[in-house]
Amino acid sequence: MKIGIRAAFCNGIALRALDLAVAYAESREVWSAPISTHQAISNPLAEVKIDIELARNMTFRAASDFDSGGDCGASANYAKFAAARAAVKSVDRAIQTHGGNGFAKDYRVSELFWPARLFRTAPVSEEMILNYVANNILGVRRSY
Cα–Cα distance between 66 and 86 in angstroms, integer? Predict the structure, then answer.
């Protein structure tokens, strides 16, 4: 179930990045209004929130499958795939929301990039998860 633990970690990264982005968007004013009032800022944050909730739901499902003693291979792989992607997307959106400040250490956003990006690749890469789903869930024959 280590994949599920990594999914939970990625969910945490994603939520932290989103929290930082929302707080910044609410406090940063341009043209006499918080930047959060502009749909170009708020809509991408809303999309990230949906991605995070989808990933969290898959993580809860994987944990439930594990706890019930059932086969959690599929749900754990779905969760890790979704959570790693949500984390990277959330961090990217947080950096974009912060603008140039997204790279400043004081705002604590850019430090989330490396752990988020790491889990798209390791210890099980997206490609290997896709192979698992294709072969074990869909029943597609292997080419190797």
Answer: 22
Q: Going residue by residue through the chain (144 aa), what tens digit of pLDDT does each one get? A: 577 789 999 999 999 999 999 999 999 999 999 999 999 999 999 999 999 999 999 999 999 999 999 999 999 999 999 999 999 999 999 999 999 999 999 999 999 999 999 999 999 999 999 999 999 999 999 877
Cα separation, 85 vs 77, whole angstroms: 12
Question: Which residues, in sequence order, are CB contacts of 1 under 8 Å at separation 6+?
Answer: 62, 63, 66, 72, 76
Q: Hey, is 31 helix, strand or coil?
A: coil
In the Cβ-directed half-sphere of 42, how many Cα atoms lie within 13 Å? 7
- Residue 44 burial class via C-beta count within 10 angstroms: exposed 0-12, middle 13-18, buried 19 and up: middle
> What Cα–Cα distance (Å) separates residue 128 from each residue in 22, 82, 119, 122, 132?
33, 14, 13, 10, 6
